Amino acid sequence: MKIEERLNAFARLGDKFTKTLSCNEESELVAAIEKAHEQNPWFTPNNVRFALATIAESWLKPDVLNSWIARYPEACFNPQHPVNVGVIMAGNIPLVGFHDFLCVLATGNRITCKLSARDGNLMRSVANTLIQLEPRFSNLIAITDGTLRDFDAVIATGSNNSARYFDYYFGKYPSIIRGHRNGIAVLTGKETQSNLTKLGEDIFTYFGLGCRSVSKLLVPSGYSFTPLLDSFCQWKDLINHHRYANNYEYQRAIFTINQTPHFDTGFLLVTPSEQLDSPVGVLYYQEYNKLDDALKYIGQHDKVLQCVVGLPEIYPKAIPFGSAQNPDIAEYADEIDTIVFLSQLQAL
Asked: Interhelix angle for 3-23 vs 45-58, to 10°?
């Protein structure tokens, strides 16, 4: 297939996602949406639908796809010797491995997907839907729940413990190995109510389980939390999710026993901490005296931060409030350009 044909198939896949979400027609994909939570309780139908809608709107539009590939030489998408790329996908949020799936196939290579046991059958259903739209992909896509075999390169994403395991077993191959990261937000006290409301999306979407989820706030000394916590009220129904509620209640008990200072909204605990990766149901914060101190903290933790949310005049690389779970198609995880990595395989 030519690159134009591959991109056209993905654009049609985006249309299929949109139509599926709007009319709920019977299909393998609809069944996967409704049943994913049976295999992974965190994959609620609303979260799965949000993931599909985000992919369709942000990545799979023809103009977006064409602008994306225009950033690279044509040779990146026309390999003389296509390779088989093993992609080990995480299972922390729905369809978290889709971007790698798109990159491998867009560049004309073959993919073998090693699915997480927590995938909820979503990627398999998406792959089958793509093949129905463009049958020529059937020879380029393989999916396994077992051991990854017969690959030329590896892209693996998981926890920090998994990343060490991946590095040990796949380090001799061309590879991208990703561990866990977090999002962080920098506040000054001058944010609008709209900013604070959108920040809730960065914190609570996917129950805060994504690598781009904001797990910590940097706030000025003496920061007033009342407007911020009030803006979170729209997320109060999270407490009705049994696993989220169990995490919240467990952490609240620990805080009570240890007399840990915290704010309690009834569904979220907000507590001071120098740590970055907060548990489910908890949001960390750390005060700074000068903005330079906040920027220094970001610099010191740059290798474990996936994104920084805030006002661009405060931090030039900050992304807008409410955009953490809606990355640009060219916003690569861990700032490793997957297209460049795949194109370099031809020289090996």
From this structure: 140
Coil, strand, or helix at residue 122?
Answer: helix
Q: Which among 168, 171, 104 is positioned nearest to 345, based on CA atoms? A: 104
Q: Which part of the chain is CATH 3.40.605.10?
A: 3-180
Tokens of 112: 């073998």
Query: How far is the C-alpha of 102 from the C-alpha of 80, rounded, in Å?
Result: 19
236: left (phi over 0), alpha (psi -120 to 50) or beta: alpha
The string of pLDDT tens digits covering residues 7-58 is 999 999 999 999 999 876 778 899 999 999 999 999 999 999 999 999 999 9
Please choose, from the candidates 76, 38, 277, 26, the residue with its C-alpha nearest in 3D space to the C-alpha of residue 160.
277
Q: What DSSP string describes 93-113? A: STTTTHHHHHHHHHTT-EEEE
Q: Domain 3-180: what homologous superfamily?
A: Aldehyde Dehydrogenase; Chain A, domain 1 (3.40.605.10)
Instruction: Specify whether domain 182-309 bears CATH 3.40.309.10.
Output: yes
Give strand ranges (E) for the chain. Answer: 84-88, 110-114, 141-144, 153-157, 175-178, 182-186, 214-220, 263-264, 269-272, 282-288, 305-309
- List phi, psi (to 5°) of 332: -80, 145
Q: Which of 274, 181, 261 is nearest to 225 (CA)?
A: 261
Pairing outcome for strands 282-288 and 269-272: parallel
Q: What is the dihedral of CA 213, 219, 224, 228, to 10 degrees?
A: -20
Domain with CATH 3.40.309.10 in the chain: 182-309
User: Is residue 313 exposed (0-12), middle (13-18) or buried (19+ Cβ within 10 Å)?
Assistant: exposed
Over residues 246-274, the pLDDT tens digits come to 999 999 999 999 999 999 999 999 999 99
Give the pairing type, strands 263-264 and 269-272: antiparallel
Q: Which of the two residues, 23 and 92, has the higher pLDDT score?
A: 92
